[in-house]
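[job 4471] stage=fold_predict status=RUNNING
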Amino acid sequence: MTHEVLKDVPQGLSRERIEQVARQRGEPEWHIQRRLEAWERFSSLPLPSPKQEDWRYTDITTLHLEDYAAVGWGDAPVGNPPAQLPAFLTENPTIRVYHRAGFGFEAHIPDDLRAQGVQVRDLYEVLISNPEQMEADLGRLAPIPGDKLTLLHAAAWDSGLYVYLPANVQVEGVIEIIHWFEAPGLHCPHTMIVCEQGSGANIVQSFFSPEGAPMFVLGAVEVFNKPNSDLRHALVQRMGRESLFISSVDYEQRRDSRVQSLNVGLGARLGRTVLQHLMTEPGAEARPLGLFFGDGTQHLDFRTLQDHRVGNTMSDLLYKGALYDEAVSVFSGMIRVHPKAQHTDAYQANRNLLLSDAAQAYSIPNLEIGANEVRCTHGATIGPIQPDEVFYLRSRGIDPAAAEALIVMGFFEVVLREIKPSDLRLSLQKLLAGKLKGDAPRYFMDLAELEEELAGV
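[job 4471] inference complete, writing structure tokens
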């Protein structure tokens, strides 16, 4: 692989420009100073390279930041609003949100939920109208010390959503958010989700861009889970093949909070997600799930941290992925148990299925244990489909391509069956099946539709 220097900064972005635009927008002084401090650190730090352990298997030194215009910081109009947006993954989301980068967002919230205090708002609007509400938490979870690109996001985030669930409010159904990026260039979306005590919801965020558009999405999602809250949260990455997608997802879990996170990687030329469950009070439970399917020359990178800062907490991670052609995946997971965090129960598993000789999967599970009364284990597997499995199916009259497809979809089923509601699970099953070779996708599409019909009877 050739190595070139990642040069300069995105077009139209500078310290002066950030300060000028932030003041024009009416941002509070404390936030402007945070932006400028992040910019100074971004400018002074070395670029990520494979010499750093966090970037060992993902080489971005051939990228050129100056090839991407900072869309949210320019004066020029970004074009016409998208005429048509992708369909939702769930049939009838309870709350429907369209975030169109460069054109704002619209949220459709039922009146009864509005009356109970459920909010989906523009993050800028909350920052400017209620700065004291944001000062303590905005950006607190997202920054990763020493990471240059994370600092670029902190300095230049340009659009965002604020999702608020009041205490003891349970949102039935799904809150589904479509993030649509159409203007070529750099986009830095930021999402902040606050789940107050005793609240609950199922939130799905889907990230899209059209094929053929050179796009760099550098995002962050911060989730604050207060005591006894219950959250299902999915991030589904379906960007176009000319795009880069790098994002952090951070959950702060307080006492007895429960979070099931789902990280789905299907699109982009290069996709990288750094996901962290930070368990800060006893009783917190995390169930991180991951699904990815790469083909062509896709590079999909997943970094996870199960951070047990106190005792009597639990986490159970399962990431499963398949790779065709020359695709590459990276999974690097860490279970960290802090000193005195006794009675921690943590597990981590990463399973990889190689469907061609040229595909590569790197799996690096790690344990960092600072307490002695714990149960912490991990495991990883990388390998092709076993010949005896194919032979068994062929002996039942199934052709080789269909046999391979059955094995692949069965491999994903362990994760799929944990996804709710059923229409979200079926939509993701169809997306995974769409990656299969030959006629197999059509077969599994029909099977999913039949299952959907039977579920409705």
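[job 4471] summary: The CA atoms of residues 208 and 410 lie 27 Å apart.
[job 4471] exit 0
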